[in-house]
Design a protein that fits this description.
heterodimer; A: mainly alpha; MetI-like fold; 12 helices; B: alpha+beta; Rossmann fold; OB fold (Dihydrolipoamide Acetyltransferase, E2P); 2 domains; six-stranded mixed sheet; five-stranded antiparallel sheet; 34% strand; elongated
Protein backbone atom coordinates (compact mmCIF):
# COMPACT_ATOMS: atom_id res chain seq x y z
CA UNK A 1 0.00 0.00 0.00
CA UNK A 2 1.35 3.37 -0.94
CA UNK A 3 0.93 6.17 1.49
CA UNK A 4 1.26 9.86 0.98
CA UNK A 5 2.59 10.23 4.51
CA UNK A 6 5.69 8.05 4.75
CA UNK A 7 6.59 9.13 8.30
CA UNK A 8 3.12 8.59 9.75
CA UNK A 9 2.79 5.35 7.84
CA UNK A 10 6.10 4.02 9.13
CA UNK A 11 5.24 5.04 12.68
CA UNK A 12 1.87 3.32 12.42
CA UNK A 13 3.48 0.11 11.17
CA UNK A 14 6.14 0.33 13.90
CA UNK A 15 3.37 0.83 16.45
CA UNK A 16 1.52 -2.26 15.30
CA UNK A 17 4.74 -4.28 15.31
CA UNK A 18 5.63 -3.17 18.83
CA UNK A 19 2.14 -3.95 20.09
CA UNK A 20 1.43 -7.17 18.23
CA UNK A 21 4.75 -9.02 17.98
CA UNK A 22 5.18 -9.63 21.73
CA UNK A 23 1.62 -10.94 21.81
CA UNK A 24 2.40 -13.32 18.96
CA UNK A 25 5.45 -14.53 20.90
CA UNK A 26 3.32 -15.26 23.95
CA UNK A 27 0.69 -17.08 21.89
CA UNK A 28 3.33 -19.09 20.04
CA UNK A 29 5.18 -20.16 23.19
CA UNK A 30 1.88 -21.28 24.74
CA UNK A 31 1.76 -24.12 22.24
CA UNK A 32 5.23 -25.47 23.00
CA UNK A 33 5.82 -29.00 24.20
CA UNK A 34 8.93 -27.90 26.11
CA UNK A 35 9.12 -27.02 29.80
CA UNK A 36 10.50 -23.49 29.38
CA UNK A 37 9.22 -20.24 27.92
CA UNK A 38 11.49 -20.00 24.93
CA UNK A 39 11.21 -18.69 21.42
CA UNK A 40 10.98 -20.25 18.91
CA UNK A 41 8.87 -22.90 20.65
CA UNK A 42 9.94 -26.52 20.35
CA UNK A 43 7.26 -28.93 19.15
CA UNK A 44 3.53 -28.44 19.39
CA UNK A 45 1.23 -29.46 22.20
CA UNK A 46 -1.76 -28.32 24.17
CA UNK A 47 -0.26 -29.63 27.42
CA UNK A 48 0.22 -26.15 28.90
CA UNK A 49 -3.40 -25.24 28.25
CA UNK A 50 -4.37 -28.42 30.01
CA UNK A 51 -2.03 -27.57 32.87
CA UNK A 52 -3.39 -24.00 33.13
CA UNK A 53 -6.99 -25.15 33.26
CA UNK A 54 -6.05 -27.74 35.87
CA UNK A 55 -4.13 -25.31 38.06
CA UNK A 56 -6.45 -24.41 40.93
CA UNK A 57 -5.02 -20.96 41.80
CA UNK A 58 -5.60 -19.84 38.18
CA UNK A 59 -9.12 -21.21 37.98
CA UNK A 60 -10.04 -19.86 41.40
CA UNK A 61 -8.66 -16.45 40.41
CA UNK A 62 -10.47 -16.60 37.08
CA UNK A 63 -13.76 -17.13 38.90
CA UNK A 64 -12.93 -14.23 41.27
CA UNK A 65 -12.04 -11.97 38.35
CA UNK A 66 -15.24 -12.80 36.51
CA UNK A 67 -17.35 -12.24 39.63
CA UNK A 68 -15.68 -8.93 40.31
CA UNK A 69 -15.92 -7.72 36.71
CA UNK A 70 -19.55 -8.76 36.42
CA UNK A 71 -20.78 -7.20 39.66
CA UNK A 72 -18.69 -4.06 39.19
CA UNK A 73 -20.05 -3.64 35.66
CA UNK A 74 -23.62 -3.88 36.89
CA UNK A 75 -22.92 -1.39 39.68
CA UNK A 76 -21.16 1.03 37.33
CA UNK A 77 -24.15 0.99 34.98
CA UNK A 78 -26.63 1.39 37.83
CA UNK A 79 -24.78 4.52 38.96
CA UNK A 80 -23.51 5.73 35.61
CA UNK A 81 -26.63 5.52 33.43
CA UNK A 82 -28.88 7.59 35.74
CA UNK A 83 -25.97 10.02 36.18
CA UNK A 84 -25.71 10.34 32.41
CA UNK A 85 -29.44 11.01 32.14
CA UNK A 86 -29.17 13.68 34.82
CA UNK A 87 -26.19 15.29 33.09
CA UNK A 88 -27.77 15.32 29.64
CA UNK A 89 -31.46 15.74 30.29
CA UNK A 90 -31.85 16.97 33.85
CA UNK A 91 -31.91 20.49 35.18
CA UNK A 92 -28.71 19.97 37.10
CA UNK A 93 -26.67 22.99 38.14
CA UNK A 94 -22.99 22.59 37.28
CA UNK A 95 -23.48 19.78 34.79
CA UNK A 96 -19.95 20.16 33.47
CA UNK A 97 -18.49 19.74 36.92
CA UNK A 98 -20.57 16.64 37.60
CA UNK A 99 -19.55 15.12 34.30
CA UNK A 100 -15.89 15.92 34.95
CA UNK A 101 -16.18 14.24 38.34
CA UNK A 102 -17.51 11.07 36.74
CA UNK A 103 -14.76 11.11 34.14
CA UNK A 104 -11.92 11.87 36.58
CA UNK A 105 -11.02 8.21 37.27
CA UNK A 106 -9.58 8.16 33.75
CA UNK A 107 -6.97 10.70 34.85
CA UNK A 108 -6.31 10.03 38.52
CA UNK A 109 -3.53 7.42 38.81
CA UNK A 110 -5.03 4.08 39.78
CA UNK A 111 -2.30 3.50 42.33
CA UNK A 112 -3.43 6.64 44.16
CA UNK A 113 -7.05 5.48 44.09
CA UNK A 114 -5.96 2.05 45.25
CA UNK A 115 -3.84 3.42 48.06
CA UNK A 116 -6.62 5.71 49.20
CA UNK A 117 -9.11 2.86 49.25
CA UNK A 118 -6.58 0.68 51.06
CA UNK A 119 -5.95 3.29 53.74
CA UNK A 120 -9.56 4.26 54.27
CA UNK A 121 -11.52 1.08 53.76
CA UNK A 122 -9.18 -1.85 54.35
CA UNK A 123 -7.25 -0.39 57.27
CA UNK A 124 -9.75 2.18 58.51
CA UNK A 125 -13.00 0.23 58.21
CA UNK A 126 -11.51 -3.28 58.10
CA UNK A 127 -13.57 -4.18 55.03
CA UNK A 128 -12.81 -7.39 53.14
CA UNK A 129 -10.93 -7.10 49.90
CA UNK A 130 -13.89 -8.07 47.69
CA UNK A 131 -16.15 -5.11 48.63
CA UNK A 132 -13.21 -2.73 48.46
CA UNK A 133 -12.12 -4.05 45.07
CA UNK A 134 -15.72 -3.80 43.96
CA UNK A 135 -15.83 -0.13 44.94
CA UNK A 136 -12.50 0.53 43.26
CA UNK A 137 -13.38 -1.20 40.02
CA UNK A 138 -16.83 0.41 39.91
CA UNK A 139 -15.28 3.86 40.22
CA UNK A 140 -12.80 2.97 37.52
CA UNK A 141 -15.61 2.06 35.12
CA UNK A 142 -17.84 5.06 35.70
CA UNK A 143 -16.17 7.09 32.94
CA UNK A 144 -17.11 4.42 30.41
CA UNK A 145 -20.69 4.21 31.62
CA UNK A 146 -21.09 7.99 31.54
CA UNK A 147 -19.26 8.68 28.29
CA UNK A 148 -20.51 5.83 26.15
CA UNK A 149 -24.17 5.97 27.19
CA UNK A 150 -23.91 9.77 27.06
CA UNK A 151 -22.84 9.53 23.43
CA UNK A 152 -25.89 7.50 22.45
CA UNK A 153 -28.11 9.79 24.50
CA UNK A 154 -26.69 12.82 22.72
CA UNK A 155 -27.56 11.21 19.39
CA UNK A 156 -31.18 10.55 20.40
CA UNK A 157 -33.75 13.20 19.44
CA UNK A 158 -35.16 14.76 22.65
CA UNK A 159 -38.49 15.05 20.81
CA UNK A 160 -38.82 11.26 20.99
CA UNK A 161 -39.50 11.36 24.69
CA UNK A 162 -41.87 14.28 24.22
CA UNK A 163 -43.68 12.38 21.48
CA UNK A 164 -44.16 9.46 23.86
CA UNK A 165 -45.46 11.80 26.57
CA UNK A 166 -47.87 13.42 24.13
CA UNK A 167 -49.23 10.02 23.18
CA UNK A 168 -50.10 9.31 26.79
CA UNK A 169 -46.95 7.91 28.41
CA UNK A 170 -46.00 8.96 31.94
CA UNK A 171 -42.35 10.07 32.28
CA UNK A 172 -41.42 6.63 33.68
CA UNK A 173 -43.29 4.82 30.91
CA UNK A 174 -41.70 7.04 28.25
CA UNK A 175 -38.28 6.24 29.69
CA UNK A 176 -38.77 2.49 29.64
CA UNK A 177 -40.54 2.25 26.27
CA UNK A 178 -38.55 4.81 24.31
CA UNK A 179 -35.39 6.18 25.94
CA UNK A 180 -34.03 2.94 27.35
CA UNK A 181 -34.43 0.93 24.13
CA UNK A 182 -32.57 3.70 22.32
CA UNK A 183 -29.76 3.63 24.89
CA UNK A 184 -29.43 -0.15 24.72
CA UNK A 185 -26.49 -0.23 22.27
CA UNK A 186 -24.69 2.42 24.32
CA UNK A 187 -25.31 0.60 27.58
CA UNK A 188 -24.20 -2.66 25.98
CA UNK A 189 -20.90 -1.24 24.77
CA UNK A 190 -20.34 0.52 28.09
CA UNK A 191 -20.85 -2.84 29.80
CA UNK A 192 -18.36 -4.58 27.52
CA UNK A 193 -15.71 -1.90 27.97
CA UNK A 194 -16.24 -1.87 31.72
CA UNK A 195 -16.04 -5.61 31.94
CA UNK A 196 -12.78 -5.78 30.01
CA UNK A 197 -11.30 -2.89 31.99
CA UNK A 198 -12.07 -4.56 35.28
CA UNK A 199 -10.96 -7.97 34.14
CA UNK A 200 -7.57 -6.73 32.95
CA UNK A 201 -6.93 -4.34 35.81
CA UNK A 202 -3.70 -4.85 37.71
CA UNK A 203 -2.85 -1.78 39.86
CA UNK A 204 -6.03 -1.72 41.95
CA UNK A 205 -6.31 -5.47 42.14
CA UNK A 206 -2.68 -5.76 43.20
CA UNK A 207 -3.01 -3.22 46.00
CA UNK A 208 -6.33 -4.46 47.32
CA UNK A 209 -5.84 -8.21 47.03
CA UNK A 210 -5.95 -10.57 49.98
CA UNK A 211 -5.18 -14.25 50.52
CA UNK A 212 -8.88 -15.09 50.03
CA UNK A 213 -9.52 -12.88 47.05
CA UNK A 214 -7.07 -12.45 44.23
CA UNK A 215 -7.83 -11.67 40.59
CA UNK A 216 -6.38 -13.60 37.68
CA UNK A 217 -3.88 -10.99 36.40
CA UNK A 218 -2.46 -10.61 39.91
CA UNK A 219 -2.26 -14.37 40.36
CA UNK A 220 -0.46 -14.72 37.06
CA UNK A 221 1.96 -11.96 37.96
CA UNK A 222 2.65 -13.78 41.18
CA UNK A 223 3.19 -17.04 39.32
CA UNK A 224 5.64 -15.54 36.83
CA UNK A 225 7.77 -14.27 39.69
CA UNK A 226 8.20 -17.79 41.00
CA UNK A 227 8.31 -20.01 37.96
CA UNK A 228 8.81 -19.20 34.36
CA UNK A 229 7.06 -21.98 32.47
CA UNK A 230 4.71 -21.88 29.44
CA UNK A 231 1.58 -22.38 31.57
CA UNK A 232 1.32 -18.64 32.15
CA UNK A 233 1.58 -18.05 28.39
CA UNK A 234 -1.24 -20.54 27.86
CA UNK A 235 -3.41 -18.74 30.42
CA UNK A 236 -2.60 -15.39 28.82
CA UNK A 237 -3.58 -16.80 25.44
CA UNK A 238 -6.90 -17.97 26.84
CA UNK A 239 -7.60 -14.50 28.26
CA UNK A 240 -6.61 -12.97 24.94
CA UNK A 241 -9.03 -15.28 23.14
CA UNK A 242 -11.82 -14.29 25.53
CA UNK A 243 -11.11 -10.58 25.04
CA UNK A 244 -11.08 -10.98 21.26
CA UNK A 245 -14.47 -12.69 21.40
CA UNK A 246 -15.86 -9.80 23.44
CA UNK A 247 -14.34 -7.27 21.03
CA UNK A 248 -15.85 -9.05 18.04
CA UNK A 249 -19.27 -9.04 19.71
CA UNK A 250 -18.89 -5.33 20.41
CA UNK A 251 -17.85 -4.60 16.83
CA UNK A 252 -20.70 -6.65 15.39
CA UNK A 253 -23.41 -5.22 17.60
CA UNK A 254 -22.45 -1.58 18.01
CA UNK A 255 -19.25 -0.91 16.09
CA UNK A 256 -15.97 0.41 17.42
CA UNK A 257 -16.43 3.72 15.70
CA UNK A 258 -19.49 4.34 17.85
CA UNK A 259 -17.93 3.02 21.04
CA UNK A 260 -14.68 4.96 20.80
CA UNK A 261 -16.32 7.88 19.06
CA UNK A 262 -18.29 8.12 22.28
CA UNK A 263 -15.17 8.42 24.37
CA UNK A 264 -13.41 10.95 22.19
CA UNK A 265 -16.45 13.04 21.50
CA UNK B 1 -68.56 28.47 16.62
CA UNK B 2 -67.15 26.94 19.76
CA UNK B 3 -63.63 27.23 21.06
CA UNK B 4 -61.38 24.18 21.18
CA UNK B 5 -58.56 25.87 23.06
CA UNK B 6 -57.91 29.24 24.51
CA UNK B 7 -54.90 31.27 25.69
CA UNK B 8 -55.66 33.94 28.28
CA UNK B 9 -52.88 36.44 28.95
CA UNK B 10 -50.26 33.72 28.44
CA UNK B 11 -46.59 34.65 28.76
CA UNK B 12 -43.44 32.59 28.56
CA UNK B 13 -40.22 34.15 29.81
CA UNK B 14 -36.83 32.46 29.53
CA UNK B 15 -34.40 34.42 31.69
CA UNK B 16 -34.51 37.95 30.29
CA UNK B 17 -36.03 36.83 26.98
CA UNK B 18 -39.80 37.10 26.63
CA UNK B 19 -40.70 34.44 24.07
CA UNK B 20 -44.45 34.94 24.40
CA UNK B 21 -45.78 38.23 25.68
CA UNK B 22 -49.23 38.02 27.22
CA UNK B 23 -51.18 36.63 24.29
CA UNK B 24 -54.92 36.06 24.12
CA UNK B 25 -55.95 33.56 21.51
CA UNK B 26 -59.03 31.48 20.78
CA UNK B 27 -58.70 28.40 18.57
CA UNK B 28 -61.92 27.53 16.78
CA UNK B 29 -63.17 23.97 16.92
CA UNK B 30 -62.99 21.92 13.74
CA UNK B 31 -60.88 24.53 11.97
CA UNK B 32 -57.29 24.73 10.86
CA UNK B 33 -55.51 27.57 12.62
CA UNK B 34 -51.96 28.51 11.66
CA UNK B 35 -49.51 30.34 13.87
CA UNK B 36 -47.42 32.27 11.38
CA UNK B 37 -44.33 34.38 11.84
CA UNK B 38 -40.57 34.58 11.49
CA UNK B 39 -38.31 32.48 13.72
CA UNK B 40 -38.27 33.71 17.29
CA UNK B 41 -41.78 35.15 17.09
CA UNK B 42 -43.08 32.77 19.77
CA UNK B 43 -45.19 30.51 17.56
CA UNK B 44 -43.44 27.26 18.46
CA UNK B 45 -43.26 28.24 22.13
CA UNK B 46 -47.02 28.82 22.06
CA UNK B 47 -47.60 25.42 20.47
CA UNK B 48 -45.36 23.73 23.04
CA UNK B 49 -47.28 25.38 25.85
CA UNK B 50 -50.52 24.18 24.31
CA UNK B 51 -49.08 20.65 24.09
CA UNK B 52 -47.88 20.83 27.67
CA UNK B 53 -44.15 20.56 26.97
CA UNK B 54 -43.44 23.84 28.67
CA UNK B 55 -45.44 25.64 31.30
CA UNK B 56 -46.39 29.30 30.81
CA UNK B 57 -44.70 31.77 33.13
CA UNK B 58 -48.11 33.33 33.62
CA UNK B 59 -51.61 33.13 32.18
CA UNK B 60 -54.12 30.36 31.59
CA UNK B 61 -54.51 27.78 28.84
CA UNK B 62 -57.91 26.15 28.48
CA UNK B 63 -58.49 23.06 26.39
CA UNK B 64 -62.15 22.25 25.68
CA UNK B 65 -63.10 24.75 28.37
CA UNK B 66 -60.98 23.13 31.08
CA UNK B 67 -58.04 24.94 32.67
CA UNK B 68 -55.10 22.80 31.50
CA UNK B 69 -52.27 25.22 32.25
CA UNK B 70 -50.46 22.75 34.53
CA UNK B 71 -51.73 19.48 33.02
CA UNK B 72 -48.85 17.21 31.92
CA UNK B 73 -48.77 16.38 28.18
CA UNK B 74 -49.80 12.74 28.71
CA UNK B 75 -53.09 13.88 30.26
CA UNK B 76 -54.02 16.36 27.53
CA UNK B 77 -55.00 13.87 24.83
CA UNK B 78 -53.54 15.97 22.02
CA UNK B 79 -51.81 14.70 18.90
CA UNK B 80 -48.52 16.34 18.02
CA UNK B 81 -46.43 16.09 14.88
CA UNK B 82 -42.86 17.24 15.47
CA UNK B 83 -40.66 19.01 12.99
CA UNK B 84 -38.22 16.08 13.20
CA UNK B 85 -41.23 13.68 13.11
CA UNK B 86 -39.76 11.97 16.21
CA UNK B 87 -40.73 8.50 15.07
CA UNK B 88 -39.58 5.79 17.46
CA UNK B 89 -36.70 4.19 15.52
CA UNK B 90 -36.88 0.87 17.35
CA UNK B 91 -40.56 0.33 16.53
CA UNK B 92 -42.23 -0.54 13.22
CA UNK B 93 -44.60 1.87 11.49
CA UNK B 94 -47.60 -0.02 12.88
CA UNK B 95 -46.11 -0.05 16.39
CA UNK B 96 -45.44 3.67 16.16
CA UNK B 97 -49.03 4.36 15.17
CA UNK B 98 -50.32 1.93 17.80
CA UNK B 99 -48.14 3.30 20.62
CA UNK B 100 -50.75 5.69 21.97
CA UNK B 101 -53.53 3.13 21.61
CA UNK B 102 -51.53 0.55 23.55
CA UNK B 103 -51.06 3.05 26.38
CA UNK B 104 -54.81 3.60 26.36
CA UNK B 105 -55.38 -0.13 26.88
CA UNK B 106 -56.99 -0.71 23.48
CA UNK B 107 -56.93 -4.49 23.07
CA UNK B 108 -54.72 -5.94 20.29
CA UNK B 109 -57.32 -6.81 17.62
CA UNK B 110 -59.08 -3.47 17.94
CA UNK B 111 -55.70 -1.76 18.08
CA UNK B 112 -54.60 -3.42 14.87
CA UNK B 113 -57.84 -2.44 13.18
CA UNK B 114 -57.47 1.21 14.17
CA UNK B 115 -53.78 1.28 13.23
CA UNK B 116 -54.57 -0.02 9.74
CA UNK B 117 -57.53 2.34 9.42
CA UNK B 118 -55.31 5.30 10.26
CA UNK B 119 -52.50 4.13 7.98
CA UNK B 120 -55.11 3.82 5.21
CA UNK B 121 -56.09 7.42 5.81
CA UNK B 122 -52.51 8.54 5.09
CA UNK B 123 -52.04 5.93 2.33
CA UNK B 124 -49.31 3.91 4.01
CA UNK B 125 -51.03 0.64 4.97
CA UNK B 126 -48.56 -1.31 2.83
CA UNK B 127 -45.62 -0.10 4.93
CA UNK B 128 -47.05 -1.12 8.32
CA UNK B 129 -44.25 -3.59 9.05
CA UNK B 130 -41.37 -1.33 7.99
CA UNK B 131 -39.02 0.48 10.31
CA UNK B 132 -39.19 4.29 10.07
CA UNK B 133 -35.55 4.51 8.89
CA UNK B 134 -36.49 2.71 5.65
CA UNK B 135 -39.08 5.37 4.76
CA UNK B 136 -38.69 8.54 2.73
CA UNK B 137 -39.15 11.92 4.41
CA UNK B 138 -42.67 12.28 3.06
CA UNK B 139 -43.62 8.82 4.26
CA UNK B 140 -42.14 9.47 7.71
CA UNK B 141 -44.20 12.63 7.83
CA UNK B 142 -47.37 10.67 7.11
CA UNK B 143 -46.51 8.11 9.79
CA UNK B 144 -46.03 10.93 12.29
CA UNK B 145 -49.40 12.29 11.24
CA UNK B 146 -51.04 8.87 11.55
CA UNK B 147 -49.51 8.32 14.99
CA UNK B 148 -50.92 11.63 16.19
CA UNK B 149 -54.36 11.03 14.68
CA UNK B 150 -54.71 7.41 15.84
CA UNK B 151 -55.38 8.44 19.44
CA UNK B 152 -58.33 10.55 18.25
CA UNK B 153 -56.92 13.70 19.77
CA UNK B 154 -59.02 16.68 20.79
CA UNK B 155 -56.49 18.83 18.95
CA UNK B 156 -53.90 18.01 16.31
CA UNK B 157 -50.75 20.10 16.67
CA UNK B 158 -48.29 20.39 13.79
CA UNK B 159 -44.89 22.01 14.36
CA UNK B 160 -43.51 23.11 10.97
CA UNK B 161 -44.56 19.73 9.59
CA UNK B 162 -43.61 20.46 5.99
CA UNK B 163 -40.29 22.25 6.47
CA UNK B 164 -38.17 19.13 5.99
CA UNK B 165 -39.81 18.14 2.71
CA UNK B 166 -38.75 19.16 -0.79
CA UNK B 167 -40.76 21.87 -2.52
CA UNK B 168 -43.04 19.64 -4.60
CA UNK B 169 -43.85 17.27 -1.78
CA UNK B 170 -44.53 20.24 0.48
CA UNK B 171 -47.23 21.53 -1.85
CA UNK B 172 -48.74 18.03 -2.09
CA UNK B 173 -48.77 17.61 1.67
CA UNK B 174 -50.60 20.91 2.17
CA UNK B 175 -53.57 19.49 0.28
CA UNK B 176 -53.12 16.15 2.03
CA UNK B 177 -53.30 17.70 5.50
CA UNK B 178 -56.35 19.72 4.47
CA UNK B 179 -58.00 16.55 3.19
CA UNK B 180 -57.28 14.64 6.40
CA UNK B 181 -58.53 17.56 8.45
CA UNK B 182 -61.73 17.61 6.41
CA UNK B 183 -62.26 13.85 6.70
CA UNK B 184 -61.60 13.68 10.43
CA UNK B 185 -63.13 17.02 11.40
CA UNK B 186 -60.15 17.56 13.70
CA UNK B 187 -59.20 20.92 15.14
CA UNK B 188 -55.70 21.57 13.82
CA UNK B 189 -53.09 24.06 14.98
CA UNK B 190 -50.18 24.40 12.58
CA UNK B 191 -47.00 26.37 13.13
CA UNK B 192 -45.24 27.71 10.05
CA UNK B 193 -42.99 30.51 8.84
CA UNK B 194 -44.22 30.13 5.24
CA UNK B 195 -46.94 32.65 4.34
CA UNK B 196 -47.99 30.72 1.22
CA UNK B 197 -48.51 27.64 3.32
CA UNK B 198 -50.54 29.59 5.86
CA UNK B 199 -52.66 31.31 3.21
CA UNK B 200 -53.38 28.09 1.40
CA UNK B 201 -54.14 25.94 4.43
CA UNK B 202 -55.67 28.14 7.10
CA UNK B 203 -59.22 28.72 8.10
CA UNK B 204 -57.80 31.12 10.60
CA UNK B 205 -54.33 32.61 10.61
CA UNK B 206 -52.53 34.17 13.54
CA UNK B 207 -49.57 36.39 12.68
CA UNK B 208 -47.01 36.68 15.45
CA UNK B 209 -43.99 38.82 16.03
CA UNK B 210 -41.72 39.10 19.05
CA UNK B 211 -44.08 37.13 21.26
CA UNK B 212 -47.18 39.13 20.37
CA UNK B 213 -50.11 38.55 18.05
CA UNK B 214 -50.05 41.12 15.24
CA UNK B 215 -53.25 40.08 13.48
CA UNK B 216 -55.72 37.21 13.42
CA UNK B 217 -58.35 36.32 10.84
CA UNK B 218 -59.15 34.24 7.79
CA UNK B 219 -56.71 34.51 4.86
CA UNK B 220 -59.44 36.37 2.95
CA UNK B 221 -59.67 38.91 5.76
CA UNK B 222 -55.97 39.28 6.52
CA UNK B 223 -54.37 39.20 3.09
CA UNK B 224 -56.10 42.26 1.56
CA UNK B 225 -56.16 44.16 4.86
CA UNK B 226 -52.88 43.82 6.71
CA UNK B 227 -53.19 45.64 10.02
CA UNK B 228 -49.66 46.97 10.17
CA UNK B 229 -46.39 47.22 8.38
CA UNK B 230 -45.06 43.94 9.82
CA UNK B 231 -48.02 41.93 8.53
CA UNK B 232 -47.96 43.69 5.17
CA UNK B 233 -44.23 43.07 4.85
CA UNK B 234 -44.59 39.43 5.86
CA UNK B 235 -47.38 38.89 3.32
CA UNK B 236 -45.28 40.34 0.51
CA UNK B 237 -46.58 43.89 0.11
CA UNK B 238 -43.04 45.12 -0.63
CA UNK B 239 -43.99 48.77 -1.38
CA UNK B 240 -44.41 51.28 1.43
CA UNK B 241 -44.95 54.99 0.84
CA UNK B 242 -45.96 57.76 3.20
CA UNK B 243 -48.87 59.94 2.02
CA UNK B 244 -48.94 63.74 2.36
CA UNK B 245 -51.00 63.43 5.57
CA UNK B 246 -48.45 61.04 7.10
CA UNK B 247 -50.44 57.85 6.58
CA UNK B 248 -48.31 54.80 5.73
CA UNK B 249 -49.59 53.13 2.58
CA UNK B 250 -48.73 49.68 1.32
CA UNK B 251 -49.24 48.24 -2.14
CA UNK B 252 -48.36 44.88 -3.67
CA UNK B 253 -45.88 44.82 -6.57
CA UNK B 254 -48.46 43.24 -8.89
CA UNK B 255 -50.61 46.37 -8.55
CA UNK B 256 -47.85 48.76 -9.48
CA UNK B 257 -47.42 49.78 -13.13
CA UNK B 258 -44.42 51.53 -14.66
CA UNK B 259 -44.70 53.87 -17.69
CA UNK B 260 -42.28 56.28 -19.42
CA UNK B 261 -42.16 59.62 -17.56
CA UNK B 262 -42.89 61.80 -20.60
CA UNK B 263 -45.80 59.69 -21.84
CA UNK B 264 -47.99 60.22 -18.77
CA UNK B 265 -51.20 62.10 -19.57
CA UNK B 266 -51.56 64.03 -16.30
CA UNK B 267 -52.19 62.71 -12.79
CA UNK B 268 -55.31 60.61 -12.51
CA UNK B 269 -57.30 61.32 -9.34
CA UNK B 270 -57.91 57.62 -8.56
CA UNK B 271 -54.24 56.71 -8.82
CA UNK B 272 -51.12 57.26 -6.79
CA UNK B 273 -48.37 58.46 -9.11
CA UNK B 274 -44.71 58.93 -8.30
CA UNK B 275 -41.79 59.84 -10.56
CA UNK B 276 -38.59 57.86 -10.32
CA UNK B 277 -35.61 56.17 -11.94
CA UNK B 278 -35.38 52.50 -12.81
CA UNK B 279 -32.61 50.78 -10.84
CA UNK B 280 -33.22 47.16 -11.79
CA UNK B 281 -35.13 45.16 -14.38
CA UNK B 282 -35.66 41.42 -14.12
CA UNK B 283 -37.47 39.50 -16.85
CA UNK B 284 -39.01 36.35 -15.39
CA UNK B 285 -40.92 34.88 -18.29
CA UNK B 286 -44.49 35.32 -17.14
CA UNK B 287 -43.84 38.64 -15.47
CA UNK B 288 -41.47 41.55 -15.42
CA UNK B 289 -39.95 42.83 -12.21
CA UNK B 290 -38.95 46.49 -12.20
CA UNK B 291 -37.33 48.29 -9.28
CA UNK B 292 -37.70 52.07 -9.18
CA UNK B 293 -36.08 54.60 -6.91
CA UNK B 294 -38.57 57.41 -6.23
CA UNK B 295 -39.55 60.09 -3.70
CA UNK B 296 -42.87 59.93 -1.88
CA UNK B 297 -45.10 62.86 -0.86
CA UNK B 298 -42.93 63.61 2.17
CA UNK B 299 -39.81 63.77 -0.01
CA UNK B 300 -38.36 60.56 1.42
CA UNK B 301 -36.50 58.14 -0.84
CA UNK B 302 -38.54 54.98 -1.47
CA UNK B 303 -37.77 51.82 -3.38
CA UNK B 304 -40.77 50.60 -5.36
CA UNK B 305 -41.20 47.19 -6.91
CA UNK B 306 -43.45 46.55 -9.87
CA UNK B 307 -44.30 42.98 -10.78
CA UNK B 308 -46.71 42.88 -13.72
CA UNK B 309 -47.46 40.42 -16.53
CA UNK B 310 -44.93 40.79 -19.26
CA UNK B 311 -45.99 41.39 -22.85
CA UNK B 312 -42.48 40.52 -23.95
CA UNK B 313 -42.07 43.86 -25.75
CA UNK B 314 -41.33 46.21 -22.86
CA UNK B 315 -38.39 48.49 -23.47
CA UNK B 316 -37.84 49.73 -19.93
CA UNK B 317 -34.17 49.78 -18.98
CA UNK B 318 -32.01 50.72 -16.00
CA UNK B 319 -31.61 54.48 -15.74
CA UNK B 320 -34.95 55.30 -17.46
CA UNK B 321 -37.04 58.08 -15.94
CA UNK B 322 -40.47 56.59 -15.30
CA UNK B 323 -43.83 57.20 -13.65
CA UNK B 324 -44.98 54.62 -11.15
CA UNK B 325 -48.74 54.21 -10.90
CA UNK B 326 -50.87 52.33 -8.38
CA UNK B 327 -54.69 52.47 -8.19
CA UNK B 328 -55.98 54.01 -4.96
CA UNK B 329 -58.30 51.01 -4.51
CA UNK B 330 -55.22 48.83 -4.10
CA UNK B 331 -53.56 50.99 -1.48
CA UNK B 332 -53.78 49.76 2.09
CA UNK B 333 -53.50 52.25 4.93
CA UNK B 334 -51.46 50.77 7.79
CA UNK B 335 -51.77 51.55 11.47
CA UNK B 336 -47.98 51.82 11.88
Amino acid sequence: MKTRRPVAGTLAVAGYVVMLVPILFVVATAFTSERTLRFPPQGFSLRWFEAALGYDPFIGALVSSLQLALVATVLALLVGVPATLAIHRGRLPGKGLVEALFLSPLIVPELVVGLALYQQLVIGFRLDSFPVLLIGHTVLMLPYAVRVTGASLALADPALEEAARGLGASPVRAFFTVTLPLLRPGIFSAALLSFVTSFNNVPLSLLLQSRDFRTLPVTMLDYVQQSYDPMVAAMATLILAGTVVIAVIAERTVGFAKIFGGINR
Amino acid sequence: MSTAAEFVAVSQVFGDFTAVDSIDLAIAEGKLTTLLGPSGCGKTTSLRMLAGYSAPTSGTIRIAGVDSTRTPPEKRGLGMVFQSYALFPHLSVAENVGYGLKLRGVEPTERRRRVMETLDLVGLAHLAASKPKKLSGGQQQRVALARAIAIRPTLLLLDEPLSNLDARLRVQMRAEIRRIQGETGLTVVLVTHDQDEALEMSDDMVLMRAGRIMQQGSPQQVFPNPANRFVADFLGYENFVTAADGTLLAVRPEHVAVSPADGAGGAAHDCLQLAGVVTDVAYRGVDLLVTVQARDATGAEVRLLSDVRSTGSETVAIGDRVTVTAPVSRLVALAD
